[in-house]
Design brief:
By secondary structure, the protein is of the alpha/beta class. About 30% of the residues lie in helices and about 20% in strands. The protein is globular and about 50 Å long. The chain has one domain: Rossmann fold (3-Layer(aba) Sandwich), CATH 3.40.50. The protein is built from 6 helices and 12 strands. Helix 1 crosses helix 3, helix 2 crosses helix 3 and helix 5 runs parallel beside helix 6.
């Protein structure tokens, strides 16, 4: 900051981070508007390094930086990621909270099956008076396959992980949308909640390559045997 004119000097690193998060914000808006569609975030080297230290995917950290601030609450859905939780709190100044009241939660890739399903069951759906308080959940996965905005097949798949196919319907979807992932534990738990719109939870799926797909609370979701890409 100049003592003479009171103008702050620009910080190139902060400018670059702001630009990256603007792109992330636009991508998430697109995914929420078109449920089940898969898009890809532009992952920088800095996020690759920082996410590795946290034990999370780079896209997960980008979404946390974009979604969280001092005015919201956050919970890591499982034990063993205390360092990641501290780093996210330090970066975003978010307030830690219990899982059943947190506005945002992260389900790491290693957190699966009954534990993950129980965590999803605990998440707040908001209320009829305040449906916006329903939780947003970042779900890490090893398999995420679907169609992009141009109708091209995109995503990633690990042959070591069993995937399930899902059909979505509702606002923003022309007829039905389809995608596959290896987080059937989370999706079945979401269906079992039987939330009544406008209450519910928003899911954002991410993989290790920067692909994301969203299922907002307004979307109906059902498991299918397969779908033709």
């Amino acid at each position: 900051m100049s003592e003479q004119d009171g103008v702050f000097d620009r910080d190139p690193a902060l400018d670059e981070r702001a630009f990256e998060l603007q792109g992330t914000f636009r991508a998430v808006l697109d995914c929420m508007a078109r449920p089940g569609e898969v898009c890809c975030l532009s992952i920088t080297d800095a996020y690759e390094v920082e996410a590795k230290r946290c034990g999370l995917f780079p896209a997960t950290l980008m979404l946390a930086d974009m979604l969280l601030d001092s005015g919201t609450t956050f919970c890591m859905a499982t034990m063993g990621f205390e360092h990641a939780a501290r780093q996210i709190a330090s970066r975003t100044h978010v307030t830690p909270a219990a899982l059943d009241v947190a506005a945002c939660a992260i389900l790491p890739e290693a957190f699966r099956d009954e534990g993950a399903a129980s965590a999803v069951a605990e998440l707040t759906a908001g209320t009829l008076e305040q449906p916006h308080r329903g939780a947003t959940v970042i779900v890490e996965c090893s398999v995420l396959l679907g169609l992009d905005a141009q109708g091209m097949r995109v995503g990633s798949a690990s042959h070591a992980c069993a995937k399930s196919a899902w059909e979505l319907s509702g606002p923003g979807i022309d007829g039905a949308a389809h995608f596959s992932c290896d987080r059937g534990d989370v999706l079945r738990a979401r269906v079992a909640r039987m939330d009544e719109f406008p209450c519910g939870i928003d899911l954002i799926f991410v993989d290790g390559f920067g692909h994301i797909a969203a299922i907002p609370r307004s979307s109906a979701c059902r498991e299918v045997e397969s779908w033709d890409m």
